[in-house]
Amino acid sequence: MTILKRIWLTANTEHEGFPIYFRRPDVRVAEFEALRPKYPMLLVVTHVLACVKENGLPEHDYNDSLESLDVSLTAAFEDETVGLIALIETFAGKRTYYIYLATSFVVDGYIREVKNNFPREELTFEVDGDPFWRLFNGYAADFHFT
Fold it and tell me: In what residue span(s) does the DUF695 domain sit (predicted)?
């Protein structure tokens, strides 16, 4: 099995007067269109950040301490077999992971493992159908992804 190593694009701008930071795979929006049928479900993981500055961004040392949580949330999708990370957003004291899933992905086990490994972090998980990738397409239009 070949593991696909994606390059991550980062960007920041302002939204509602606050800084907003994005991370997303270096995948052209047109390529996402081809991947859409493979991943019809959307998992949204929201992490309420415990230590933030007045502008809503995480404090530097705290942000550095979140690396293992980030790896835990994203590692299952590195080979893009069961899911694809579409976008990671940091805004207004929260970091939100938008992950498109294959129907074969075992969401309950994933959630249980993350919660067990990071019991002190305030995390919420929402799963819903989004076969047309409306959420990602909205972000792509609003923030001019190419």
Answer: 34-136
